[in-house]
């Protein structure tokens, strides 16, 4: 059975890792999985190169811009010529393309739903179109129960949605070398280094984290914060840090290629999001044995039990976030016990083998029709 996954992306982040390792799991199975994306200005997406290095089939659609009308035509032609059984789309752009391309082909359309970002008016518009079109897919894969509930609020039947959570390769992560963040950023040996990683946009909560970090560092002067990532709000967050005079305590070094090594070298992982699907960075921190402080949004409460495998706080409650950070830094024995329990959870409950079986069941259901 031929399965084509299409993701409009230029870098290797959480969703791209999910695709990579799912396709690796499919090697040798009855499912022939290909991962595809789009070039812009002649540039091949970086994440496809990393996937191709693992012996996984990839394909590039050459387009002039993100919204080139030729993209849907190329995708349609590929589906027909390669006799693709199932097309899987993974973002608002490919949802629009998939809706147009799959018509008058024999392929079935599965739309993955992870959540929505808040960047600019154009993206907001296309995400509105995504919400309208995704209901027309043959079936929808939601990454969490919370995301399924969001889709149900769009009056999409629950029978049309299957929950398949993100997975983690704990054994692979165990081999990653930790980066010494104290040495890299010139911190004192007794510094407690907190990191976060993600796109700098409003729903990721970095501005609120900066305010919380300012208060937390007053209560515990050892605390230091490194906010990894890039995005439209990066300079705005940096300006807030400068305005508060916290440049030595809160850093925004930009996009980090070895983010997993940085997370492994951290004392605490903070996920301050106001909205989420199921954040890969939280799963990765759990597998890397790093204590987690996170907002209870999206699918996060489905993978973290407050007080047992991590600390959860209500989204937007900066005082609660401060308390959780200070508690995680001061009660190291409890933080360590939570981290160990979290690692055990993801090693047994969030495997790619389990994820593959759930997706394979969906493939078999729709591939026969």
Layout: helices, strands, pairs:
Layout: E1 2-6, H1 14-26, E2 32-40, H2 46-52, E3 57-63, H3 70-81, E4 86-89, H4 92-101, E5 108-113, H5 121-133, E6 139-142, H6 145-152, E7 161-163, H7 170-174, H8 181-185, E8 192-197, H9 206-219, E9 223-228, H10 234-243, E10 250-254, H11 259-264, E11 268-271, H12 280-287, E12 292-295, H13 300-303, E13 311-313, H14 318-330, H15 332-349, H16 352-367
Parallel strand pairs: 1-2, 1-4, 2-3, 4-5, 5-6, 6-7, 8-9, 8-11, 9-10, 11-12, 12-13
Roughly how many Å apart are the termini? Answer: 12 Å
- The number of helical segments is 16
Low-confidence stretches: none
Compute the number of strand runs: 13
In one word, what is the shape? globular
Question: Main β-sheet: number of strands, strand sense, barrel status?
Answer: 7 strands, parallel
User: Which strand order does the major sheet show?
Assistant: 3-2-1-4-5-6-7
Percent helix, as a range, is 40-55%
The structural class is: alpha/beta
Strand content: 15-25%
Q: Using only CA atoms, what is the Rg?
A: 21 Å
Keyphrases for this structure?
369 residues, six-stranded parallel beta sheet, alpha/beta, 16 helices, single chain
How would you describe this protein?
This protein is of the alpha/beta class. 44% of the residues lie in helices and 18% in strands. The protein is built from 16 helices and 13 strands. It has helices at residues 14-26, 46-52, 70-81, 92-101, 121-133, 145-152, 170-174, 181-185, 206-219, 234-243, 259-264, 280-287, 300-303, 318-330, 332-349, 352-367; strands at 2-6, 32-40, 57-63, 86-89, 108-113, 139-142, 161-163, 192-197, 223-228, 250-254, 268-271, 292-295, 311-313. The protein has a seven-stranded parallel β-sheet with strand order 3-2-1-4-5-6-7, with helices on both faces. A six-stranded parallel β-sheet has the order 10-9-8-11-12-13, with helices on both faces. Strand 5, helix 5 and strand 6 (139-142) form a beta-alpha-beta unit. Helix 1 packs across helix 16 (352-367), helix 3 (70-81) packs across helix 4 and helix 9 packs across helix 14 (318-330). The termini are close together. The mean pLDDT is 93.
């Amino acid at each position: 059975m031929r399965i084509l996954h299409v993701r409009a992306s230029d870098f290797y982040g959480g969703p791209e890792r999910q695709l990579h390792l799912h396709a690796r799991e499919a090697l040798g199975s009855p499912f022939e999985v290909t991962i595809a994306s789009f070039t812009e200005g002649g540039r091949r997406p970086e994440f496809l190169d990393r996937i191709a290095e693992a012996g996984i089939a990839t394909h590039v659609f050459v387009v002039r811009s993100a919204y080139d009308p030729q993209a849907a035509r190329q995708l349609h032609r590929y589906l027909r010529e390669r006799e693709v059984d199932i097309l899987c789309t993974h973002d608002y752009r490919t949802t629009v393309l998939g809706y147009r391309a799959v018509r008058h082909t024999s392929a079935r359309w599965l739309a993955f739903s992870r959540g929505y970002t808040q960047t600019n008016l154009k993206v907001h518009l296309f995400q509105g179109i995504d919400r309208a079109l995704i209901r027309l897919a043959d079936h929808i894969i939601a990454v969490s129960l919370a995301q399924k509930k969001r889709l149900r609020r769009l009056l999409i039947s629950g029978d049309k949605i299957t929950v398949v959570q993100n997975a983690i390769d704990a054994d692979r992560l165990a081999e990653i070398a930790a980066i010494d963040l104290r040495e890299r950023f010139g911190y004192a040996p007794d510094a407690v280094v907190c990191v976060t990683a993600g796109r700098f946009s409003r729903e990721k909560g970095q501005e609120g984290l900066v305010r919380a970090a300012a208060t937390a560092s007053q209560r515990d002067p050892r605390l230091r914060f490194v906010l990894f990532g890039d995005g439209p709000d990066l300079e705005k967050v940096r300006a807030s840090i400068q305005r508060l005079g916290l440049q030595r305590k809160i850093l925004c070094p930009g996009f980090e290629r070895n983010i997993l090594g940085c997370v492994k070298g951290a004392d605490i992982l903070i996920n301050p999001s106001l909205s989420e699907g199921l954040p890969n960075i939280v799963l990765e921190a759990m597998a890397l044995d790093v204590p987690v402080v996170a907002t209870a949004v999206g699918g996060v409460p489905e993978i973290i039990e407050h007080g047992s495998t991590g600390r959860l706080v209500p989204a937007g409650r900066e005082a609660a976030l401060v308390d959780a950070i200070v508690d995680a830094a001061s009660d190291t024995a409890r933080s360590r016990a939570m981290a160990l329990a979290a690692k055990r959870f993801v090693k047994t409950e969030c495997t790619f083998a389990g994820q593959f079986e759930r997706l394979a069941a969906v493939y078999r259901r729709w591939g026969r029709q």
